[in-house]
Structures are given as structure tokens and as C-alpha cells.
Predict the 3D structure of the following.
Amino acid sequence: MSRGNPLEPLTGVVSAVFAVSLGVYGLATAIRLTIGLFDPVCFTAESWPQHRGP
């Protein structure tokens, strides 16, 4: 039944792209958190620039 469904390959591609982007985002977040542990001032200034008020 699913052999005639044109959306099935598209669903696989979308889920694969979503999984990869989620993995990259998680990896980047983990790296930034690790950097933040060693340099909290730089991490805070980079992540929340609106907090650098007068």
C-alpha cells in the first residue's frame, strides 16, 4: 500500500535532515556549554549580548 505513496521517501529525507540538524545543534550546544565552564564571562557575553547594558 505504501509502495504508491510519493510522500514516503520525502518523509524519510525530512526525518533524516531533522535528526542530523538536531545532532549538530546538540553537539554545538555541548561545546558551548563546555567552553562556558572554562570561560563563563565570554560564554555569557556571547550568548546573551542584551545583558551587557550600561
